[in-house]
Amino acid sequence: MCFGRRARCIGYKLLILALLSIVANILLYFPNGETRFASEHHLGKYVECLHGILGGGFLVLIPAAVFIGLHNDDCCGCFGHKDCGKSCAMLSSVLAAFVGILGSGYCIIISALGLSHGPYCFTHLQRNWIYPFTESSGGYLFEYNKWSECQEPQNIVQWNVTLFSILLVLGGIEFILCFIQIINGILGGLCGLCCSHEEVSHL
C-alpha cells in the first residue's frame, strides 16, 4: 500500500470519528433531549468545554481533510521533480497530524475529567444544584446505588457517563490514528514514494 492511500484511509476514519464526537458533545448539552437545563445554566463545567465539538471535532477535521486530499494531489513537485513534491506533501501532513493530536488529546483529557468529576445535578439531600460525586475521584462510577442521589436531570449520571465514555474512546482512537499518520508521513516524505510507477502513469 502506498503512503498516500494509507493517509487517505486514515483521513476518512478521522472524518467519521470527528463527526461522531461533535454529535456526542451536542447530546451532552441536552440531557434526555431536554433544552431547559442548558438555558438555565444547569450543566456541568466539563460539558461546556467543547472538547468534542472543538477538540475531537473541528481540530480533527483539519488533518482529516489534509489526509484525504493527499492521494488525489497531482503532486506537481518542486523545481519539476514530482517525487520531491510528493515528499513535501507527505511531510506537510505530519504538521496536520500534530493538530489532530492536540485536538484529540484535549478531548481525552476533558472526557476523563468529566468522568472523574461527575455530573452537576439537583440532589434530594442538599436540595440544591451541586457536584455530589466530586470527592469520590471517579469511585461513583462503580457505586450504582448512589446514582439515584441526582434527581434532576433524570438519569443524568447514566447520560454523562455514557457520552463522556464515548468521547474518551473516540478521542483515543483519533489520537492513535494521528500518531500513525505522523509515522506514515515521515516515512513517505523520506522515501519519496507516494505511489507505484503504474499509479503515477495514470495521474
Describe this structure in words.
With 203 residues, the protein is mostly helical. The protein has helices spanning 3-28, 36-39, 51-72, 82-117, 156-191, 197-202; strands at 121-123, 128-130, 150-152. The chain has a 3-stranded antiparallel β-sheet, with no helix packed on it. A hairpin with a 4-residue loop joins strand 1 and strand 2. It is elongated and about 65 Å long. Residues 73-82 and 193-203 have low confidence and may be disordered. The chain crosses the membrane at residues 12-30, 50-70, 91-115, 161-180. Belongs to the L6 tetraspanin family. It is found in: Membrane. It is a multi-pass membrane protein.
Global outline: elongated
Instruction: Please count the beta strands (DSSP E, at least 2 residues each).
Output: 3
N-end to C-end Cα span: 17 Å
Instruction: Report the mean per-residue pLDDT as an integer.
Output: 84
Q: What value does the Rg take, in angstroms?
A: 22 Å
Residue fraction in strands: under 5%
Biggest sheet features:
3 strands, antiparallel
Secondary-structure element order, N to C: HHHHEEEHH
Walk across the major sheet and give the strand order: 2-1-3
What is the helix fraction of residues, given as a range?
55-70%
The total count of helices amounts to 6
Based on secondary structure, the structural category is mainly alpha
